[in-house]
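Dear colleague,

Thank you for sharing your sequence with our group. We've completed the structure prediction you requested, and as agreed, I am returning the results in plain text so they can be pasted directly into your records. Please verify that the sequence below matches your submission; if there's any discrepancy, let me know and we will rerun it promptly.
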Amino acid sequence: MNFNQHKRINDMRFLPLLLFCVTVFFVGGCGDSPSKRGIPPLVPCSLTFLFEDDAPVDGASIRLLPDDPDSKWAMSGFTASDGTAEISTDGDFPGVPKGTYKVTCTKSEQIPTGKKSEEGEEVFDSKLLVAKEYSRPNTTPLTLTVGGAPVNEVFKIKKP
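Please find the predicted structure tokens below.
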């Protein structure tokens, strides 16, 4: 075995270490985080939605709309069977930035009309299952202020 062949074999010993380092760099170093997107620190936010008769509002879409017009992040969640929603920012990061928000709650069901579209597909109407006022930012009476402490707020809402 000449010197060059021996050197190449010794260099091969470092290949697994090199592959490991490259993997760690790409998996750990290129991951997404709130700070990489410019999102400020997030506060845990759990909201519960109940009808006036204390029945949980399950399967509702929840959005938090910041009073700050410069905010560029979307805060949202969906209620579980017990009416609770864990709110996330930009769909990926649990919690919300500090601030004041309008809160919308929308839940509807699709009802067949018995009609067909021009393409032959069944046509549906949408029926709201929560009062209409909660589904629009300009009419919702629900507001939320998020400070530094985790949020655990209960909202009572009306049926249509």
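Summary note from our side: The chain has one domain: 43-157.

Kind regards,
the structure core
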